């Protein structure tokens, strides 16, 4: 039987939802997505959940924050001088920053004070358990 292995190209439908059922991402109403196992398209624990599944099979997994986008890390929340921002800010807004290596680093404006702005650099889904629903469409050997 053809099952998902570590050298598979997998075509699937997927859905990510929060604890309250709110859908974060889904391609069930679209063309299925394809990836090669281990190519970094899916988080490692999401890939591991697919091992042994066969074409046509559906499953649903609850992924803890540690297996999804990580725990919320307070050290990733930074206070910055309000004067550093030359734009109108709103809470929840995503702003692009550059890290020490000049790589783009998105941060969410968490709080706006008179003199300081609180910026959260955690992944927006950090600290959240997610339900990962999948339907395997096809499995092939990766080239």
UniProtKB/TrEMBL annotation:
Keywords for this protein: Isomerase, Rotamase
GO molecular function: peptidyl-prolyl cis-trans isomerase activity
Catalytic activity: [protein]-peptidylproline (omega=180) = [protein]-peptidylproline (omega=0)
Documented EC number(s): 5.2.1.8
SUPFAM superfamilies: FKBP-like (SSF54534)
InterPro entries: PPIase_dom_sf (IPR046357), PPIase_FKBP_dom (IPR001179)
Domain of life: Bacteria
Name assigned to this protein: Peptidyl-prolyl cis-trans isomerase
Organism annotation: Marinomonas profundimaris
